[in-house]
Specification:
The complex is a heterodimer. Chain A is an alpha+beta fold. Chain A is 53% helix and 17% strand. Chain A is built from 25 helices and 22 strands. In chain A, the strands form five sheets. Chain A has a seven-stranded mixed beta sheet, sandwiched between helices. A six-stranded antiparallel beta sheet of chain A has the order 12-17-16-15-14-13, with helices on both faces. In chain A, strands 3-9-4-7 form a four-stranded antiparallel beta sheet, with no helix packed on it. In chain A, helix 8 runs antiparallel to helix 9, helix 22 crosses helix 25 and helix 24 crosses helix 25. Chain B has one domain. Chain B is 61% helix and 5% strand. The longest helix of chain B is centred in the N-terminal third of the chain and has 31 residues. The chains are: A alpha+beta, B mainly alpha.
């Protein structure tokens, strides 16, 4: 279900315009005020400044090894720039998207209803919460609000990227409209609910642009770890100089700073914020807006998913799958009556009965107008629908409703029919009883159709340690049957909004994190209580405000993808941290012998990579350290490959790839770089 | 290397692992205040102590209260020891009429024994009276070990408890650890040692007439005839037992466990090594039981065992190598000789048991020695040094080893925990920025003190370098080892140099103090913070801390984070010395 816009975005991971903008931004981000936020890269920048100053001084004084010192200085600056570039790339896509959204935000004219009931023309920027406006076909809705009168079809493609119009109407769960969308037909009265600058569009722009990006809790913790490691390695390098002097082999600042930069976790330090931004961006690609990065992290931690049955686990409509005729009634008789009673029933259930009758007994649909029939619509009091035709009086409805109808005609529900009804209910279906002229003909089996592939997805979730709970208004018997068929772990039957809330609280009391979707106003408290609450964009304003994410596609199944994105975000951080730290081993073996083999040739025994000479060894290590950041930008932006599996299996796989790989890759990389720079005569 | 040597090492490992289970279970019972078979003896004493001191055994402490209680207790006992040392000339049980201990040595020693370091810059038999040894020093062997036990248990409670603000009662943990664990086991050990010839008396020193009179060089170039030898005595066995069991390591005699009255036979040697690992190994089982995941305890024990096995193998191998400078002499292992490097080793222990003892005593923060680490080959000596630099978490000191290891567990879980796609959790506790912050602080203090003091020392030729008996990389190794030993509260030394100077007495005193108490505070802060958290129930998505993979990960993180910090310094010390030795240069 990819919209055109999403397809385009996926293609443009390294879009030319974004790369150009990112290159400029990388330079702008050199400002120490911005760099301070990233302690690891700040240390590298300070080192770069220091070597630059020393390079100038050495050049003036004709001391030092100009060619080596210059290269070290340049690569140190590249290290900083590459990290900045990664961050700018991650922000780039969001910025491009924000530009597109700004177009929708352009100033429009609002038709504000004044006290006397007349209409004033005011610029949309002057609207305040509480104002009431009128919008007719062809007009842009000037601000977020709630429809208080009328029904209209609305083009929301500016926000959702989906071009098919949606229906918005007063009352109920589809009353919210968003500023920047366009009314296609009819006219509506809207009560504005947000002030200028606080609209959904404003929030969305700020979000995709990363302007309000705050570090998430886990990111802060990781930053502390990286800062701690940086201090430890700083200590190791600073104290190395006295030991080197004691040993009679003092080092130049260039070499010491190279060692420091190689040891501190620059790979993850340089890519950390890019990973976070890209994670949020991936959500946007899936047309989900999160109000905070915290919610995305929480999504990775979710223990329990609450899923509404209808629309999420089952396709929204039930379908007739079987005719169960009463004793003495043929299947065809039953099908005929059922078909007649359903001919003018335009609900999906009604249509499916007509289809089934045709499939099983070849009964063709008949033209109602030619039959001279009277259709009896479903009413809340009788809870039956039916038809009066040719002196045939056909009714269909729930078992108790039909039983009452039969009693009025002095008849009783045959026990066989009752048994059939129970059988259907136990299997998770909904029984409809058909009666004609006071006689029960049999039962139609309406079945909830579980969406394809759901069982596999729930199996995957289970493997990830996530429990799924189906929420349904059905009775426990039906709920149990559907739960079994869909493969969810648990269900909440005959659920009222309060039950949902209680379930969430109960799970949370056990220390679990809960995710759910919702759209109605009565979902709002539960959405707010859940750790991850995804509101449907088609839902009410209250629901959207209560949740911490909004799904623009209004697709409840999206929750599963959101969880995967959250996990992928955390995994990418962990993988690159592990990789970064494991890299240090090879760098030691490159730089330590290079530092001291001049004075103590025996230390060449540690030069296990057989690097060409001391200068080439230090250069290779620092070049590898810088290039690996660039090489890992795509991984940081896309996230590590995520396949649902148990934590133990994931850990094993990732430890081998990023832990063991992190130990081995730099040995190969540094050796290759050494061969290249030796060949081209740079060292 | 010989088969006999390997069999002894394997027997040792097997016995350690075998004893861990019963000892650990017993400690769980003791600290969870369940019934034990010693209740009849210890119970009345415990109740009497609480009544006398007015302690409410049911009172639960927050981590800050726990820390303050621990610090007050340590401070008071430190002052007590200092006073006993200073005033010993006026106190009884001073058969040799020794004067009061000088102020800087007395303070260094008081800190040293309070911090479970037992660094000794003095010669015990000519400095400390029997009373000082017993009341001033041996008591600390019990107390500092009991404090370590209490702290480890508090940390484990922090992991195990759910939404609790408290970690237990320090006074109760201290009392129960001493009465139920340390005293009874020490008693049995002391009896075993006496049976092998370890002395236990209050007699004045014996004087023996030498069968072969010696000539000794005196001051001013004249030599004098030596016809008698003074043989020191004392209540040794009682102190020796707790010296090992409590991973203290402070010798009754200067020669420590190389002295025949401290460690007379191969059997006592074996028992003493076993005593060092007994409680630290048992604590991993206690950890598993108290947090409700015995498998996790075993995973931690496995990580310790792997690091230990690697260390002892490297040390035994290095010490068995022939000296490359004496290639003309047959140095192989044979019926006639042990082979390898016997300098500084006791003949009754040989290479295998000396290498094993050195590895054990530095893995744990014991510091007792049965051979001179300074005389080991460069790589052989590298093993004890690295063991200490890793933070003495391979089994480690009583209690201190476990909580040090658990800080590494927290870091490992945080680094790799993310890779399963969840915010890192350790046994259901989310590891958040505060925990990481305190863990990094804990990890930071260690290299800061060691590398900082060592760097300052090598920059001061007169105060720092003049005491060194060896120059070059070996001198650097000696200084690094001294500060590592002090900060890690080990107490052993590359004893080739004279450390009894003002600079080293003071700076090592500071290092010991920081290495113990400054590291305890962030550790308890983590425990307090963990205790407050909810426990997220385990599921298939939970980071597994019970698997062999976790064990390997933990070992990896310890090696990468712990050892790489010191790699540059080590490469200029033992590594360079080793390479130069094979190039024909010694120091």
């Amino acid at each position: 279900m990819l919209s055109g816009r999403k397809m385009k975005d996926r293609r443009s991971l390294f879009d030319g315009a974004i790369v150009r903008r990112a290159s400029v931004d990388a330079l702008r981000k050199l400002s120490p005020k911005l760099m301070m936020k990233n302690p690891v890269m700040f240390v590298v920048e300070v080192g770069s400044v220091l070597t630059s100053v020393l390079l100038v001084r050495n050049t003036v004084q004709h001391t030092g090894h100009f060619r080596f010192d210059l290269q070290i200085t340049l690569w140190l600056w590249f290290t900083v720039l590459f990290a900045n570039f990664a961050e700018a790339m991650a922000e780039g896509r969001g910025k491009a998207q924000a530009d597109a959204l700004r177009l929708a935000k352009s100033e429009t004219t609002a038709y504000r209803v004044n006290k006397s009931g007349g209409v004033d023309e005011v610029p949309s920027s002057q609207l305040r919460a509480g104002d009431v406006i009128r919008a007719v076909a062809g007009q842009m809705i000037p601000g977020d609000g709630e429809i208080i009168e009328g029904v209209a079809s609305v083009d929301e493609s500016a926000i959702t990227g989906e071009s098919a119009p949606v229906i918005r109407e007063a009352g109920g769960d589809r009353s919210a409209v968003t500023g920047g969308t366009r009314v296609l037909s009819d006219a509506i009265m809207v009560r504005i609910t947000s002030n200028p600058g606080e609209t959904f569009l404003d929030r969305m722009i700020a979000l995709v642009e990363g302007a309000e990006r705050q570090k998430t809790p886990n990111e802060i913790a990781l930053n502390i770890l990286l800062a701690g490691l940086t201090i430890i390695f700083l200590l190791a390098v600073v104290t190395l100089q006295p030991f080197a002097m004691y040993s009679g082999a003092p080092q130049t600042i260039f070499v010491l700073i190279s060692l420091l930069v190689c040891l501190i976790p620059t790979t993850i330090g340089g890519l950390l914020s890019a990973i976070g931004i890209a994670g949020m961006d991936r959500l946007v690609q899936h047309n989900v807006l999160a109000t905070s990065g915290r919610a995305v992290e929480a999504a990775g931690d979710v223990n329990t998913l609450l899923l509404d049955k209808t629309g999420t686990i089952t396709i929204g409509n039930r379908q007739a799958t079987e005719f169960l005729a009463a004793p003495g009634v043929s299947g065809e008789q039953l099908a005929d009556a059922a078909q007649l009673s359903s001919l003018s029933d335009e609900t999906p259930e009604g249509r499916s009965i007509v289809v089934l009758a045709k499939e099983q007994f070849g009964l063709r649909g008949r033209e109602l107008s030619k039959l001279n029939a009277e259709f009896i619509p479903f009413s809340a009091t009788t809870r039956m629908s039916g038809i009066e035709v040719d002196k045939r009086s056909i009714r269909k409805g729930a078992v108790d409703a039909i039983a009452r109808y039969l009693e009025e005609h002095g008849a009783k529900m045959p026990t066989e029919v009752r048994a059939a009804v129970e059988g259907v209910a136990r299997s998770g279906g909904t029984p409809l009883v058909v009666a004609e002229n006071g006689r029960a003909l049999g039962v139609i089996h309406l079945k909830d159709i579980v969406k394809g592939g759901m069982k596999e997805r729930f199996d995957q979730l289970r493997a990830m340690g996530i429990r799924t709970v189906m929420i349904t208004g059905d009775n426990p018997l039906t709920a149990a049957a559907i739960a079994r068929e869909a493969g969810v772990d648990d269900f909440l039957a005959e659920a009222k909004p309060k039950d949902k809330m209680d379930l969430i609280k109960r799970e949370q009391a056990e220390g679990k994190l809960v995710a759910m979707t919702g759209d109605g106003t009565n979902d709002a408290p539960a959405l707010a209580q859940a750790d991850v609450g995804v509101a449907m964009n088609s839902g009410t304003q209250a629901a959207k405000e209560a949740g911490n994410m909004v799904d623009l596609d209004s697709n409840p199944t999206k929750l599963i993808e959101i969880v995967a994105i959250g996990k992928q975000l955390l995994m990418t951080r962990g993988a690159l941290t592990t990789f970064s730290i494991s890299n240090d081993i090879a760098k030691y073996f490159a730089i330590i012998p290079a530092m001291f083999a001049g004075v103590f040739p025996v230390l060449n025994a540690l030069n296990i990579m057989h690097l060409h000479n001391a200068e080439s060894a230090v250069l290779s290590a620092i070049i590898f350290n810088a290039l690996v950041i660039v090489a890992l930008i795509p991984l940081a932006l896309r996230g590590v490959t995520y396949r649902p599996m148990s934590a133990a299996a994931l850990l094993q796989r990732n430890l081998v790839v990023y832990g063991l790989g992190g130990v081995l890759v730099p040995f190969v990389g540094i050796k290759l770089i050494d061969m290249v720079i030796t060949a081209v005569g740079l060292a | 290397m010989s088969l006999n040597g390997w069999l002894q090492i394997l027997l040792f490992i097997a016995l350690v692992l075998l004893l861990a289970q019963p000892v650990g279970s017993y400690m769980t019972q003791v600290f969870e205040r369940r019934r034990t078979w010693l209740d009849g003896v210890c119970g009345p004493v415990e109740r009497l102590l609480y009544r006398l001191t007015g302690i409410d055994a049911e009172y639960e402490m927050r981590w800050t209260e726990y820390a303050v209680a621990m610090l007050i207790f340590s401070a008071v006992t430190l002052v007590l020891t200092y006073l006993v040392e200073r005033l010993q000339g006026m106190l009884p049980l001073n058969t040799q009429h020794l004067p009061g201990v000088p102020a800087d040595v007395a303070l260094n020693t008081a800190i040293s024994f309070t911090t479970n370091t037992n660094w000794q810059s003095y010669v015990p038999e000519t400095t400390m009276s029997y009373l000082t040894q017993m009341v001033g020093l041996a008591t600390h062997n019990f107390w500092s070990a009991a404090v370590g036990l209490a702290l480890a248990i508090a940390f484990v409670r922090g992991i195990a408890r759910r939404e609790s603000r408290t970690l237990g009662n320090f006074w109760v943990d201290l009392t129960r650890g001493t009465l139920w664990v340390l005293l009874p086991i020490s008693f049995v050990l002391a009896i075993a040692l006496v049976s092998q010839g370890v002395v236990q008396n209050f007699r004045p020193y014996d004087t023996a007439t030498l069968v072969e009179p010696q000539r000794a060089a005196g001051t001013g170039g004249q030599s004098s005839a030596v016809t008698t030898q003074t043989i020191a005595q004392g209540p040794v066995a009682s102190q020796e037992a707790i010296k090992m069991l409590g991973t203290n390591g402070g010798g009754f005699f200067n020669a420590n466990s190389a002295h025949p009255f401290e460690n007379p036979t191969p059997l006592t040697n074996f028992i003493e090594m076993l005593a060092i690992f007994l409680l630290p190994a048992g604590l991993t089982v206690t950890l598993g039981q108290m947090v409700g995941s015995p498998k996790h305890g075993r995973a931690v024990l496995a990580a310790m065992t792997i690091l230990f096995a690697v260390g002892v193998t490297a040390c035994y191998w290095a010490e068995s190598q022939p000296n490359p400078l004496m290639h003309q002499v047959a140095q192989g292992h044979s019926e006639q000789q042990s082979g390898g490097n016997m300098e500084g080793k006791e003949v009754r222990f040989g290479v295998a048991n000396s290498a094993l003892f050195a590895t054990v005593t530095t893995d744990a923060s014991c510091g007792a020695v049965n051979a001179m680490h300074d005389s080991f080959t460069p790589l052989g000596g590298l093993v004890p040094m690295v063991n200490i630099l890793l933070g003495e978490i391979v089994f480690g000191g009583v209690g201190a080893g476990l909580y040090g290891m658990l800080v590494f567990v927290v870091i490992s879980v945080f680094i790799a925990g993310l890779m399963v796609g969840r915010t890192p959790e350790y046994l259901g506790k989310k590891i958040e920025s505060y925990d990481v912050q305190m863990s990094m602080l804990y990890l930071l203090i260690f290299p800061l003190v060691i590398l900082g003091f060592a760097a300052v020392s090598v920059m001061m030729p007169s105060t720092g370098l003049s005491v060194l008996a060896n120059k070059g990389p070996h001198g650097l190794s000696e200084i690094l080892y001294a500060y590592a030993s002090a900060t890690g509260n080990n107490g052993s030394a590359f004893a080739g140099s004279n450390w009894n100077t003002h600079w080293y007495n003071d700076s090592i005193g500071v290092a010991m103090f920081i290495g113990r108490f400054l590291m305890i505070v962030p550790m308890l802060a983590i425990a307090g913070n963990l205790a407050r958290k909810k426990i997220v129930p385990a599921s298939a998505g939970t980071f597994p801390v019970t698997t062999p993979l976790f064990t390997l990960l933990l070992v990896g993180v310890i090696v990468v984070v712990g050892a790489l910090t010191f790699f540059p310094a080590i490469s200029l010390g033992p590594v360079l010395e080793h390479l130069l030795l094979h190039a024909g240069q010694t120091f």
